[in-house]
Amino acid sequence: MDDRLDALIDAHQMAASEAFAAFVDTGLCAHPASRVAWGSNGLPLRGEIPGGGEYQKLGFGLRIERNGQTIVFEFAPDGRLGPFDEHALQVYWDENGRRGGFQTADEISAAFADALRARELRALSSGLYERTR
């Protein structure tokens, strides 16, 4: 796998984990038991985060903007964080300083496609992916 893609996935997963933990700590919601449970948890579609920031509930995920950082993620079918898609990685890269060695979103797409061809990424039934290692 392209080292830049590997590092981007790591950074995205860490940011998603930290942002969602802080979100849960506000008392707005609990960690879902499944992505279906997330979709029907009654959380308003948009709102302010106590202590600063904003969120937007997505179908099976969340967009959190806080502390100058934007993160978009979805839950796996079993409710866990970690799986990702190409779009979420591109949003993270684009809205958080374009760090990590990629110069364009097309480079991320090419690295993602290469990782899929090399079977370094595995597709989940939900349209999300995870690394095979």
SSE inventory with pairings:
Blueprint: H1 3-25, H2 35-39, E1 46-48, E2 54-57, E3 61-66, E4 69-74, H3 86-95, H4 105-117, E5 121-123, E6 129-131
**How much helix is in the residues?**
25-40%
Strand content: 15-25%
Total helices: the number is 4
What number is the mean pLDDT?
A: 93
Lateral strand order in the biggest sheet: 1-2-3-4
Tell the overall outline: globular
> Sheet with the most strands?
4 strands, antiparallel
What letter string, H or E per element, gives the SSE order? HHEEEEHHEE
Which blocks of ≥5 consecutive residues have pLDDT under 50? none
Task: Report, as a whole number of angstroms, the end-to-end distance.
Answer: 10 Å
Give the radius of gyration. Answer: 15 Å
Protein described:
Strand 2 (54-57) and strand 3 (61-66) form a beta hairpin. It contains 4 helices and 6 strands. It has helices at 3-25, 35-39, 86-95, 105-117, and strands at 46-48, 54-57, 61-66, 69-74, 121-123, 129-131. Helix content is 38%, strand content 19%. The longest helix has 23 residues, at 3-25. The chain has 133 residues and is an alpha+beta fold. The strands form 2 sheets. It has a 4-stranded antiparallel sheet. A two-stranded antiparallel sheet has the order 5-6. It is globular, with a radius of gyration of 15 Å.
